[in-house]
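Field reference: sequence -> structure
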Amino acid sequence: MGKHILFIMLGNLIYEGKYKITNSRVLNVEENKIEHTLTEDGRIKDINTKMLGTFWNVSVGNGVVYGEGQDVITTEDGETATYKAYGVGRLNVESKGISFRGSVFYKTSSNGKLAFLNNMVGIFEAETDESGQGVIKIWQWK
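Structure field:
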């Protein structure tokens, strides 16, 4: 059987944003499953956006959490898109927050500025500090 070589290419940085966790609630005590609501300001390429989202995470041991989330993206002129995200986070001893890495899956019915996002897959890095504020960057996965 021959060798298989896998090439994964990250495209350009398509998004940078700053977020704030605004609310948290316990979904399941036995699983230690917590849901968070966040608001976010950012830029997709040269487009100013606001986002409203929720995500949940569960501890899987040794300072590691698994999480899933979803966001609604809105431009200043009312265009919308959404994404679902899946990731793994690790406790960051220095910031007393969490560093997440994962993937996002975009969807939109827009024919305007956000149309390029439809069915795009991205890879993200997010850093949250102990106050619930954070930054996120997303690259296109080609």
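Note: The chain has no helices and eight strands.
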